[in-house]
Amino acid sequence: MGKYILRRILWLGLVLLAVSFITFSLMHLVPGGPWDREKELAPQIVENLNIKYGLDKPFYEQYINYVWNALHGDLGVSYKYQDRSVTEIIGTGLPITATLGVIAFILALVIGIPLGMAAALKQNSVIDYVAVVFSTVFASIPGFVLGILLVIIFSVWLHWLPTSGWGDWRQIIMPAFSLAALPAAYTARITRASMLEVVRQDYIRTARAKGLSERIILSRHTLRNALIPVVTVAGPELAFLIAGSFIIENIFSIPGVGRLFVQGVFARDYGLIMGTILFYAFAVAIINLIVDIMYGWIDPRIRYD
Amino acid sequence: MKGKLLYLLAALLIIVPIVFSGCTSDDNDDDGDDGTVTTPQVFRVNLAGEPNTIDPNKASWATERSVIMLLFVGLLDFNSDLSLKAACAQEIPTVANGGISADGLTYTFKVKSNVTWSDGSKVTAHDFEYSIKRMLDPDTAAEYASFYFDIVGAAAFNAAASADAATKTALRNAVGVTAVDDTSLRITLAQTRPTFLSIMALWPTSPVKESVITAKGNLWTEAGNLIGNGPYTLKEWVHQDHMTFTLNTNYWDTKPTLTEIKYLMILDATQELSAYKNGELDMARVPVGTETATLADPVYGKQVVRNNDLTTFAFQFNVNKAPFDNLLVREAMSCAIDRVAFVEQVRGGVGTPAYSWIPPGMPGYDADLGKDFAFNVTKAKQLLADAGYPNGVGMPELKFQYADTASNRTIAQFLQAQLKTNLNLDLTLEPMEPAAFSAFVNSEQHTWAWFGWGADYPDPDNWLPDLFGTGGGNNHTGYSNPAFDTLARQAMMELDNTLRLQMWAQAQEIVMADMPIVTMFYRERFYVVQSYVKGLEPTGMDGGIMGDTSLVNVSIVK
After folding, report:
1. Mean pLDDT of all residues belonging to chain A
2. Count of domains forming chain A
3. Considering only CB atoms, which chain A residues are within 8 Å of B270?
4. B445 and A CB contact within 8 Å
5. Membrane-spanning residues where (chain A) (predicted)?
6. How buried is A292 (Cβ within 10 angstroms: 0-12 exposed, 13-18 middle, 19+ buried)?
7. What integer pLDDT is reported at residue B15 of this predicted model?
8. Which one of A33-42, A115-124, B3-12, B123-132 scores highest in mean pLDDT?
9. At B399, which helix (H) or strand (E)?
């Protein structure tokens, strides 16, 4: 197991290098640079900015410099927010996006799994129909539509919650729900389908024949097996949520990494783009690794060596 | 089981509102009977995004100006009627008071003796010298440095990015900005520039404190580090979320009434209005396209405040690309577009139809100019026929490029419909990602594009040479007319103001006759403002927030 993790981490290094090279090349290939404005800057000013940020150097030199500095923990300066370093900017956005992502993730599981279970255990009952309707509706409403609807209801009409911003727990509720709705719906469907399959398995019948109580069958046999596909989708879901939804962060003005990335792309802020992309790649890779390790724990048949 | 669940649900429905309502609505309670004095003087507005920098030397965007105007005060400033006023300077330099030399090349500013930094120390002429030279330093890479290239040695210093340290120091010392003593700052120009005082009233020459910058480096603009000389100090800057400003206890001029100003950073315009409706903001923009609905609203309709901006929007041709290299085609386009319908239908009645370039409220505005080529379908058809394309026959494919945003899309579709209806011409729309669009237009690859221009300072010399002079920095039409160039070169340096304005009037006439652009409308800001906000004075040159040039006059009266 230790060896396996070590091998995965070595691969991670290579993946990050590849991601950095592809991103770096794409950034420079896309038309429009960091100093392209509708109100054009004087040529002398553009030249000064290029020299200041090393953009006057050849492409390969810029890339090597970037990688070298990144290996030393320096992700460079932002071209948009010229007085701040990329590490510092991402450092302030990251805890916010992560908090929101984890809350949304927990919300998705807390809503999705019980709903799916209830639906499967009482198949074709009212609960089942409610669950199916819930998962269909929330799987098809885009997060930003839900977000705007929530704002109109809870802020503009009822005045219960602040519309946007960050810092107060009341500001987390609407974005967390908007973000959690789709994964919750998805989790509910997967849980329901998986449960329906597991309850029909021979080993459940065996357990019942042994005279085990329904409670024990459910917790020890049904649930544990039924959750394997849920864990499979939960991994990418967590990665998706922690990566931060650009749209949700934009609508609710949450100062997270997702919003920074979008701003970076629009401003052609090479430093900020590279920083956020590398962070995403790293986060997704690590989460996938954790999911793989969890498989081994949930399903003893899966072995890594 | 089912019964229990229903009870639980019912209980939740009852509890949730109680819990939430318990935590809100605590700020509207204490508006006493007539306790106008005790009303907290806190003003909350939206800055619509994090400023890129609030370092006055480096700043260039409207949102940045909104912050700088609270924290820094320069030698000169603009009144709300956009006339100049002395701020840190004792008086506006003139030839009569000896502030400007007879040849118009040397300016002497006298700094008021009571001007202090927010830490209580004195602001002297040396601080201004440091600030201006730092702004011109190529290592600062300030975006507005080119505005000050009339100063002796400024351009040479700014071009020395790759020079060695000794050369840079020599060039810095050669810049014509000198603090003669603590109270006098002398600036020497390489050539006369009648609008130099207006340029000195802009934010890049605000004083900055050398000791703070040396000690804190780039982080000197963070809350806690920043020392300014403006009416407010930066109390808190939660990046990407909000900024809080409190009264500068050491402010040397009349202290404003508002004790605290909060800038939120809500990006989405619809959300900004929602925040206003939820009592989180005292003032908000109304999103484009929803103005009519807002006016019709029984509550919000009464809170609307509108103000004309010194900003013009236009369609710019590439005069070097067919078919727009033909003046008659350009004139036909101008006559085929109904500006009145545009403002009414596309802009929700917000803004004023524009027939010439320089907007009303600025010296050089000419109300009659351009009316010859106002909307007139018969004339448009005739001009098109004269150009060799009767009924549009034989016309090459017409293309229109724009930055793909929701409001630009409606503009492009309007243009497409106008050409189809009025001239039976097909227009191909080419939406582009905003930065890519800017790069495309700046390299003059476009054929026909949407653009706007806002005043840096209220004078034609900010509106004509850079945009229509041959090779001008923002000339993206490829337009070139030697008659215009000669006139502009003279007007840029002409010290006789009457003569100077006549020259600019003539220059604008030349441009409008050659028609490298079709002017469409003058922008108008459209806000809702709570009735308890008093003293808001919008000007045509506000920054990111309407009225931000004179927030010192605002008070809250509930």
Report:
1. 88
2. 1
3. 148
4. no
5. 9-30, 94-117, 129-160, 172-191, 226-252, 272-298
6. middle
7. 38
8. B123-132
9. strand B398-403
Mutation site, A160, A252, A257, A261, interface B, largest B CB count within 10 A = A160
Q: Per-residue pLDDT tens for B243-257?
A: 999 999 999 999 999
Domain span at residue A218 reads 92-267
Instruction: Give pLDDT, residue A240.
Output: 78
CA distance B146 to chain A (A): 7
Q: Is residue A213 part of a domain?
A: yes
What 3-state DSSP class applies to B297?
coil
The proportion of chain B whose per-residue pLDDT surpasses 70, expressed as a percent, equals: 93
Predicted local distance difference test score (pLDDT) of residue B22: 34
| Residue B520 clears pLDDT 80, i.e. is over it | yes
- Give yes or no for residue A136 having a pLDDT over 50: yes
Q: What is the pLDDT of residue B29?
A: 39
Chain A residue numbers with beta carbons less than 8 Å from the beta carbon of B437 are 32, 38
In a domain, A17, yes or no: no
**CA B13/CA B17 separation, integer angstroms:** 7
Please check whether residue A64 lies inside any domain of the structure: no
Half-sphere exposure of B487 (CA within 13 A, CB side): 21
Q: Enter the pTM of the model.
A: 0.89
Euclidean distance between CA atoms B320 and B325, whole angstroms: 5
Reduced to 3 DSSP states, what percent helix, strand and coil does chain B have, rounded to the nearest 5? 35, 20, 45
Question: Quick check: A73 contacting B, CB < 8 Å?
Answer: no
B270 with A148: Cβ contact below 8 A: yes
Q: Is A79 on the interface with B (CB under 8 A)?
A: no
Q: What contacts 24+ positions apart, CB below 8 Å, involve A65-69? A: A66/A20, A66/A24, A66/A274, A67/A17, A67/A20
- Does any domain span residue A7? no
Report the percentage of chain A scoring pLDDT > 70: 98
Report which residue type is found at B300: Y
Does the distance separating the beta carbons of B141 and A49 come in below 8 Å? yes
For all residues of chain B together, what is the average pLDDT?
91
Residue A260 is part of a domain; what is its CATH number?
Answer: 1.10.3720.10
Interface contact A92, partner B, CB < 8 A: yes
Chain pair A-B, CB pairs under 8 angstroms: 163
Report pLDDT for A2: 80
Q: Are residues B142 and B53 in contact, defined by beta-carbon separation less than 8 angstroms?
A: no
Measured between CA atoms, the residue of chain B closest to residue A89 is B239
List of chain A residues whose C-beta atoms are within 8 Å of the C-beta of residue B277: 155-156
Q: How many helices (H) and strands (E) does chain B have?
A: 17, 18
pLDDT above 90 covers a percentage of chain B that reads 88
**Each residue of A17-38: pLDDT tens digit?**
999 999 999 999 988 889 988 8
| Helical (H) or strand (E) element with B233 | strand B232-238
CB–CB contact B143 A41 (8 Å): yes
Q: Is residue B3 pLDDT above 60, yes or no? A: no
In A, minimum Cα distance to B441 occurs at A38
Asked if the model's pLDDT at residue B25 lies above 60, the reply is no
- Per-residue confidence band for A232, with pLDDT thresholds at 50, 70 and 90: confident
Beta-carbon contacts of residue A231 (< 8 Å; ≥ 6 apart): A291, A294, A295, A298
Query: Which positions 407-436 of B are in contact with A (Cβ < 8 Å)?
Result: 433-436
Inter-chain residue contact B268 with A250, CB threshold 8 Å: yes
